[in-house]
Amino acid sequence: MSKIVNIVTLGCSKNKVDSEFLGAKLFELGYKVEHDSDHNSDIVIVNTCGFIGDAKEESVETILSFAQLRKRKKLSKLVVMGCLSQRYKKDLEDEIHEVDAFFGVNDLDKITSLFESEAVPGEGVLCNSTRILSTLNHYAYLKISEGCDRSCSFCAIPLIRGKHVSQTIESLVKEAGMLAAMGVKELVLIAQELTYYGLDVYGKRTISQLIEKLSEIEGIEWIRIQYAYPHGFPDDLLDVMASNPKVCNYIDLPLQHISSRILASMKRNVDKQQTLDLVKKIRERIPGVAFRTTFIVGYPGETEEEFKELFDFVKEARFDRMGVFAYSPEEGTSAFELEDTIDDDVKVQRVELLMELQQGISLEINLNRIGSVEKVLIDKLEGDYFIGRTAYDSPEVDNEVLILAQQKLQIGSFYQVEIIDADHFDLYGKVIQS
Ligand code: SF4
């Protein structure tokens, strides 16, 4: 009988994609693959995150909880992969002996080989896909490149994931076509630095050309982009967003800070004025665009005045969505050499102040949507409600639209929905047309 492998994925959507590729390889070897399952399984693979302090802690705790099961022989194998084990393999091997093997981020083939030796002959099944999705069937992440050539002072990603490597347009179109054939209607394009796409393989930024090609795939109705970078933002990306109806009017552009001094220390290659100009340009060229960003507070030397400058910017700019991280010193990064001057409780307080401010802004923006009619993709049925999303909302992180389950709706289908109520993070709607 096939052994069940549970792949537990922590961290970002890039990790999810890695887990999905691994899942398909294991399936072909005859293993039954589940993602983040609550059921008992024979084998667990933890795909870890090594981004910042909290994420590393969560990864270690998850490994330790499965190590207990391995110790009690409730698991026949425990494998750890991903960013944390890429970064701290030796330390983890020394400390956690119940783990059978640790792998880094580029070790999918090695992991497959480990399982190959124990595969049950004859159990292998040809997988109709190179990925076993961990998301709902109608949306998928498309990882267009790996690694990052930037040198942001706070970020360990280039140390973990290496230099930027773009997938070719041909290979991504093929992968997206396969996803569409599996029923995927929404593609979320992801990368560490999405706007850099193409520079390494084509000698120029080619994100807009890629999007145009992807939009020709039958069955793909929404294309969403995540993780753009302000410096060198390609103008033609705005053209394709404005003109191509399949591209969601949604942008996720981490700005990290607004103080020119801090941006310079962060090595972000833009100052305050350039940031303001870019935000203005995006909004002018894509009217009504949903703007998501992230900031870091408590960066070394961040003064009260610099935090106030950021606070005032957030108040003024009124982003649709915003995430805030407390600065975490990461070994090997250039900011690690700077003194971590801000107390943890001050960092927490600054995170809370910004989030509180954003909550009010999000509520106002959501209330303004009452009365509008929006195209909604139905994700799932939960209790009394169908849960969906508009084109302005990315899966797993943004608003959901709750629709009373009085009429039968099809999961994975689009409906015209009138927004009838709203709170901070959810909208309520009723279907007016299927
Ligand atoms: S662009 Fe993003 S992934 Fe690359 S170094 Fe900067 S923060 Fe890290």
Q: Descriptors for this entry?
A:
single chain, 434 residues, alpha/beta, Rossmann fold, pyruvate-formate lyase- activating enzyme, OB fold (Dihydrolipoamide Acetyltransferase, E2P), six-stranded parallel sheet, five-stranded parallel sheet, 13 helices, 23% strand, binds iron/sulfur cluster
Give a structural overview:
This protein has 434 residues and is an alpha/beta fold. It has three domains: 113 residues, Methylthiotransferase, N-terminal domain (Rossmann fold), CATH 3.40.50; 230 residues, tm_1862 like domain (pyruvate-formate lyase- activating enzyme), CATH 3.80.30.20; 61 residues, Nucleic acid-binding proteins (OB fold (Dihydrolipoamide Acetyltransferase, E2P), Beta Barrel). It is built from 13 helices and 18 strands. The chain has a six-stranded parallel sheet. The protein has a five-stranded parallel sheet with strand order 2-1-3-4-5, sandwiched between helices. Strand 4, helix 3 and strand 5 form a beta-alpha-beta unit. Helix 1 packs parallel to helix 4 and helix 6 runs parallel beside helix 8. The protein is globular, with a radius of gyration of 22 Å. The model has no long low-confidence stretch (mean pLDDT 94). The site of iron/sulfur cluster has 9 residues, from helix 5.
What does this entry show, briefly?
The protein has 434 residues and is α/β, with parallel strands linked by helices.
Number of strands: 18
Distance between the termini: 44 Å
CATH architecture classification of the largest domain: Alpha-Beta Horseshoe
| Radius of gyration, CA atoms, in whole angstroms | 22 Å
Number of helices: 13
The whole-number mean of residue pLDDT values reads 94
CATH superfamily of the largest domain: tm_1862 like domain
CATH T-level topology of the largest domain:
pyruvate-formate lyase- activating enzyme
What is the count of structural domains? 3
Shape field:
globular
What percent of residues adopt helix (DSSP H or I)? 25-40%
What are the low-pLDDT stretches, counting only 5+ consecutive residues below 50? none
What binds here, in terms of ligands, is: iron/sulfur cluster
Classified by CATH, the class of the largest domain is Alpha Beta
Please give the largest β-sheet: 6 strands, parallel
Strand-pairing-aware structural class = alpha/beta
Strand content: 15-25%
Walk across the major sheet and give the strand order.
6-9-10-11-12-13
